[in-house]
Design brief:
Distance between the termini of chain A: 82 Å
Oligomer: heterodimer
Strand content of chain B: under 5%
Radius of gyration of chain A: 26 Å
Radius of gyration of chain B: 22 Å
Structural class of chain B: mainly alpha
Number of strands of chain B: 0
Strand content of chain A: under 5%
Mean pLDDT of chain B: 91
Low-confidence stretches of chain B: 471-483, 488-492
Order of helices and strands of chain B: HHHHHHHHHHHHHHH
Mean pLDDT of chain A: 77
């Protein structure tokens, strides 16, 4: 095995070990940290008091203007 | 998470202040990445137009070697694939990671420096290819002096995304964060290995195409796809105000993508001189991709159920849902294309080109547009200046990619059938394809009109021409009284 072939082998083998190892470590960390214990809490974690569940947060500009002018009346 | 009725104005204002501070911390780098991305999108669109016209009018712009089809097509792929796509998804990753981690971005200038290195790499890449320095390796066409800029720029952005995650104040890791972290780990590794084994320390023989398509396919599946899905998993629930239908399914979707996608690239080499087991394993991996795709499809559809009327009001939601639906379609198609029997016809034809554009544009690009429509007003404090231009953008992009996909799929399929028939002359196949290739140019023009509309909107927003956003909570607008109320969230 010449140096180039050895480097290629090392790269491929290293990739497999690193990719697989990183995935296994991440999964283990997530289990230990309780990331998979309460799915409902996970789904709701992106909402907050300023952007709560039940409120839309986006619209076309035209509707924004219409809404504002209606509110001003 | 408090019920809506129990939220006090003080709690609301405090949370809004925190969100505004997070947005302000990443304003400069995220806008810089967005502007750079749109610049490369316009360059890529112009190059695509030249390349497309040359396919049905071969005497178009033949005066200079810089504008020959081979160079222009390579430059187009780099401009949209590494310019628009990479920079837009880096913007998405930084903003989403800050928001989901509930922390401000520290040292934003360092991220800007990373983006500048990427932009320098892009200029050298596109100019170098047009000057004749391209390497003619799909997805790795960049001249050999370019990768150090990409690796350094990507390294900074990836490291900073991980650093932001490590400083998080939100203990739960939302599914979008999983996708972003994975993409930020995967691409630096994929790119460095691919460049090392193909450009700097070239492997011998068939190892090169194997590494080439391991990288090329994973660039789409382990870099563009995760961040686009991360964006959809954040935007759809946020905009309609309802949690994702099944968080369990979303986690299944992420881990099954992580497990199976990296096998899939070898189906590009069906019929090639590579070990049969390698292609078979890749075909199996492609079939297994039905699992994450179905998980995402069920989740997005069920989350949207009862809220489809909101597509009329929200530009971000409209682009994002278009992209999500396309993700299901293009992924199913991709798995079927990995079958040997199907490839006998579709391989090496325009059918594959149609599929690639459906994924890169119909899915990824549309979701990135959706994210920018949502994100940029929150960063600049200005709303979009013209709803008419947003509509023009959406319909030009949507109709453009539809024409593109339908025309090249039909033309490409019959091209494959004719190529397999030894009694059909090659000149007849070329003549048969001409109307489909002309339609492709028309579709490209439509999409470019959409891009120009978006670039105009972005420029107007940055110049402060849009209406100033109201103070208080950061949401874009209260629901108008004409919109039906949001259905209550369902338990997963």
């Amino acid at each position: 095995m010449n140096p180039t072939e050895f480097a290629i082998f090392l790269t491929i083998f290293g990739s497999i070990v690193l990719f697989g190892g990183a995935a296994a470590l991440a999964l283990g960390w997530a289990f230990r940290g309780g990331q998979f214990e309460n799915f409902e809490r996970g789904a709701r974690s992106i909402f907050g008091p300023d952007e709560p569940i039940g409120e839309s947060t986006d619209a076309f500009p035209a509707f924004v203007r219409q809404n504002r002018s209606e509110a001003a009346l | 998470m408090l019920p809506l009725a129990a939220i006090t104005p003080q709690q609301r204002e405090e949370a809004a202040r925190e969100r505004r501070a997070i947005d302000a911390s990443c304003r400069v780098p995220v806008l810089y990445f967005c502007v750079s991305a749109v610049f490369w999108l316009l360059i890529g669109s112009a190059l695509a137009f030249i390349a497309s016209v040359k396919l049905h009018s071969p005497y178009f712009l033949t005066g200079s070697p810089e504008l020959t089809f081979g160079r222009v097509r390579m430059a187009h792929l780099q401009a949209v694939g590494l310019g628009w796509s990479a920079l837009s998804l880096m913007a998405a990753s930084i903003w989403l990671m800050c928001r989901l981690s509930r922390v401000e971005l520290i040292y934003p200038r360092l991220v800007v420096f990373g983006g500048t290195l990427w932009n320098i790499g892009m200029i050298l890449d596109v100019v170098g290819i047009l000057r004749g320095d391209g390497l003619s390796i799909e997805w790795l066409d960049a001249p050999r002096y370019v990768p150090p800029f990409f690796i350094a720029g990507l390294g900074i952005v990836s490291a900073w995304t991980v650093a932001t995650f490590r400083r998080r104040r939100e203990p739960h890791v939302y599914v979008s964060q999983w996708y972003i972290l994975a993409a930020m780990f995967w691409l630096p590794w994929l790119y460095t290995v691919a460049v090392t084994m193909i450009v700097w320390l070239p492997a011998v023989g068939v190892v090169q195409p194997v590494v080439n398509w391991w990288f090329g396919h994973n660039y789409l599946g382990l870099w563009m796809t995760p961040v686009a899905l991360a964006s959809a998993y954040y935007l759809i629930p946020k905009i309609i105000g309802r949690p994702v239908h099944s968080y369990y399914l979303s986690i299944i979707g992420f881990w099954s993508l992580a497990l199976f996608y990296s096998w899939a690239g070898m189906h590009h080499l069906i019929g090639g001189p590579v070990p049969a087991w390698l292609v078979t394993a890749s075909t199996v991996g492609s079939m297994m991709m039905f699992i994450p795709v179905i998980a995402v499809a069920i989740n997005h559809h069920m989350t949207m159920l009862g809220s489809f009327h909101r597509l009329k009001y929200s530009p971000a939601l409209r682009f994002t849902v278009f992209g999500s639906i396309t993700y299901t379609a293009v992924s199913f198609q991709g798995s079927i294309e990995a079958l040997r029997d199907f490839s006998e016809v579709a391989h090496f034809t325009h059918y594959t080109v149609a599929h690639a554009h459906l994924g890169a544009y119909g899915f990824f690009t549309m979701i990135m547009f959706g994210l920018m429509y949502y994100m940029i007003p929150r960063l600049t404090g200005r709303e979009w200046a013209s709803s008419g231009l947003i509509r023009l953008h959406f319909w030009c992009s949507a109709i453009g990619i539809t024409i593109y996909f339908v025309a090249l799929s039909i033309g490409g399929w019959w091209q494959g059938r004719m190529l397999n028939n030894p009694n059909t002359g090659f000149d007849r196949i070329i003549t048969y394809l001409l109307p489909y290739l002309a339609l492709r140019s028309v579709a490209g023009v439509l999409m470019t009109v959409g891009h120009l509309a978006f670039a105009t909107l972005l420029t107007a927003n940055l110049l402060g021409w849009g209406q100033r956003r109201l103070g208080g909570p950061t949401y874009f607008a209260e629901p108008t009284r004409n919109i039906p109320p949001i259905a209550p969230p369902r338990e997963a």
